[in-house]
Amino acid sequence: VQLQASGGGLVQPGGSLRLSCEISGSTFSINVRRWYRQAPGKQRELVAEIISGGSTSYADSVKGRFTISRDNTKNTVYLQMNSLKPEDTAVYYCNVDRSRGLRVDTFWGQGTLVTVSS
């Protein structure tokens, strides 16, 4: 499984960005898709996840501002980020779990940098 993230960039506070993560390879049985982020000098943190049934969950810091979604026809997961704040500045990573029986494999994409600054 390969993950290709894109959509990062420089945006002013209050602005919006949409990140995309295209998933390729053996995508059968992928049941969880996530976005993480890592700010300079901080640990990587879970931002949002969407499970196979469509349920979503978010970090408290992004609730009401970020939306995770997926397009199964394109094997792509998105992160719509609105009302961006300087503290959202980080490298954003996509991540998926693939379950086969009792085995769960986790795959990571390369990061995409989001900088929120005036």
Lay out the secondary structure:
Elements: E1 2-6, E2 9-11, E3 17-24, E4 30-38, E5 45-51, E6 56-58, E7 66-71, E8 76-81, E9 90-100, E10 103-108, E11 112-116
Parallel strand pairs: 2-11
Antiparallel strand pairs: 1-3, 3-8, 4-5, 4-9, 5-6, 7-8, 9-10, 9-11
Q: In which range does the helix fraction lie?
A: under 10%
Largest sheet: 7 strands, mixed
Q: Can you count the beta strands?
A: 11
Task: Enumerate how many helices there are, as a single number.
Answer: 0
The quaternary structure here is single chain
Order of helices and strands: EEEEEEEEEEE
Structural class: mainly beta
- As residue ranges, the low-confidence spans are none
Distance between the termini: 37 Å
Q: What is the CA-atom radius of gyration, in angstroms?
A: 14 Å
Residue share in β-strands? over 45%
Morphology: elongated
Instruction: Give the rounded overall mean pLDDT.
Output: 95
In short:
It is built from no helices and 11 strands. It has 118 residues and is an all-beta fold.
Write up this protein.
The chain has 118 residues and is mostly beta strands. The chain contains no helices and 11 strands. The chain has strands at residues 2-6, 9-11, 17-24, 30-38, 45-51, 56-58, 66-71, 76-81, 90-100, 103-108, 112-116. The strands form 2 sheets. Strands 2, 4, 5, 6, 9, 10 and 11 form a 7-stranded mixed beta sheet that branches. It has a 4-stranded antiparallel beta sheet with strand order 1-3-8-7, with no helix packed on it. A hairpin with a 4-residue loop joins strand 7 (66-71) and strand 8 (76-81).
